[in-house]
Structures are given as structure tokens and as C-alpha cells.
């Protein structure tokens, strides 16, 4: 029996794909355990069981729990960035002017997802866990930097405003703060309050971006380029 030309290369490629798929499966299971069990109750054994992989496969990819946690934090931030980029880019694809109000609504929906709940869980746990804090803090700084760069690309007309940086910070702090309150409290009026705050935010941002009023997205790209 002869080996087809390129057979070894194809086999290596298949093995690499299989390994990456297993790694992704483990990371998805880790995030699921963070959500359902909490950070402190997440062990490599529980993750392996949730992922449906053997103990050997788990140790092959992540010999230590610390390595698994580090990879899971990076993976979580990447997923959040991917969702932000995909949804906001799609929303504004054919828009002449950036859809700021709709963008805020979309961002708020993202913050109501399990991905942000997991991030919040890790933030709380990191307060008393130096090892987690050492991973989470720089990863979060990098996430914020990437998020800011994406926002400038997705909203090129708004990014020309002198107050764009301030506006994005206000938006993030306000919406993330409300999302955290939503997770940790049981306020029966939270939805009403949220609607009122978001309506105020939209109006405040319209006033902040008055200096770029009338500049469309295409013109903004040319000015920036």
C-alpha cells in the first residue's frame, strides 16, 4: 500500500485541526463552568467532564489549572471582541451615518449575555485571588485597547469628534455598571430605570457629537486616511 503524495502533510493538518477543536471544546467548557459553578468551584476535572474529553486530553492541552485559566481569560475576551465587531459592523454596513442609538442598544444586549456575566464573575473572584488578577488585569487592558480601536473603525464619523474618547468611556462605564447591577441586584424597577438611563445616554451623546454633525462615514474615512 502506497502513501499518497502529500499524505503526511494532510495527516499533520488533520491532527492540528483535531487538536485545535479539542482545545476550543475545553475552553468553551471552562467558560460554561465559570458561569454555572463559579470561578472557585471550577476544576480541571469538572471542565474535562463538561467538555467530554479524557483526563489525558485535558493534561495534554493544559497541564496546570493556571494555564487553563489564562487561556480561558484570553479566549473570553476574544469572544467578546468578536461579537462586538461582528454585530456593530453588520449594523452599520450600509449606513451613511453611524447608527449611534442602535449601536448602544446592540452593545447593551451584548452586556446582558452570559459572556459578560462570566467576565463579572472573574472580576469579583480576582479581588481576592492574586493569580487570577495577574492574568485578568493585563488581558482586560488589552481588551479595552482593542475595543477602542474597533469603535473608531466602526464609527469613523463619530471618531472624528474631539469628545469621542470621552463619549466611549462614558458609554462603557455606564452600560457595564448597569449590567453589573443587573447581575448582582434584584430591583423590580431595573428595566424601567435602564430604559430611562439609556434614553438619557443617547441624548447626551448626540449633544457631545455636535462637532461632527453632517460628516458621513465615507467622508470621515477619507479624512482619517
What can you tell me about this protein's structure?
With 225 residues, the protein is mainly alpha-helical. The protein is built from 10 helices and no strands. Helix 1 packs across helix 2.
Category by helix and strand content: mainly alpha
Strand content: under 5%
**Amount of helix:** over 70%
Listing every helix as H and every strand as E from the N terminus to the C terminus, the arrangement reads HHHHHHHHHH
**Gyration radius from CA atoms, angstroms:** 21 Å
Number of strands: 0
Short description:
The chain is mainly alpha-helical.
Keywords:
globular, 10 helices, mainly alpha, 225 residues
Indicate the topology.
Layout (H helix, E strand, L loop, with lengths): L6 H31 L6 H8 L3 H7 L3 H27 L8 H12 L2 H13 L3 H25 L9 H21 L5 H19 L8 H8 L1
Helix pairs in contact: 1-2, 1-4, 1-6, 4-5, 4-6, 4-7, 5-8, 5-9, 6-7, 8-9
Amino acid at each position: 500500500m502506497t502513501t499518497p503524495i502529500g499524505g503526511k502533510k494532510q495527516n499533520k493538518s488533520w491532527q492540528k485541526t483535531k487538536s485545535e477543536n479539542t482545545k476550543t471544546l475545553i475552553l468553551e467548557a471552562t467558560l460554561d463552568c465559570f458561569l454555572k459553578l463559579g470561578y472557585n468551584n471550577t476544576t480541571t476535572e469538572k471542565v474535562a467532564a463538561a467538555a467530554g474529553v479524557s483526563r489525558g486530553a485535558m493534561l495534554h492541552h493544559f497541564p496546570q489549572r493556571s494555564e487553563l485559566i489564562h487561556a480561558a481569560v484570553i479566549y473570553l475576551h476574544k469572544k467578546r471582541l468578536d461579537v462586538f465587531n461582528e454585530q456593530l459592523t453588520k449594523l452599520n454596513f450600509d449606513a451613511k451615518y453611524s447608527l449611534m442609538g442602535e449601536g448602544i442598544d446592540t452593545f447593551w444586549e451584548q452586556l446582558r449575555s452570559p459572556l459578560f456575566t462570566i467576565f463579572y464573575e472573574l472580576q469579583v473572584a480576582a479581588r481576592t485571588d492574586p493569580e487570577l488578577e495577574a492574568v485578568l488585569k493585563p488581558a482586560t487592558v488589552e481588551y479595552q485597547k482593542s475595543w477602542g480601536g474597533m469603535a473608531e473603525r466602526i464609527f469613523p464619523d463619530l471618531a472624528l469628534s474631539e469628545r469621542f474618547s470621552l463619549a466611549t468611556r462614558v458609554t462603557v462605564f455606564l452600560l457595564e455598571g448597569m449590567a453589573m447591577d443587573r447581575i448582582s441586584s434584584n430591583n423590580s424597577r431595573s428595566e424601567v430605570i435602564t430604559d430611562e438611563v439609556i434614553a438619557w445616554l443617547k441624548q447626551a451623546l448626540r449633544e457631545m457629537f455636535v462637532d461632527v454633525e453632517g460628516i458621513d462615514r465615507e467622508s470621515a474615512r477619507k479624512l482619517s486616511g
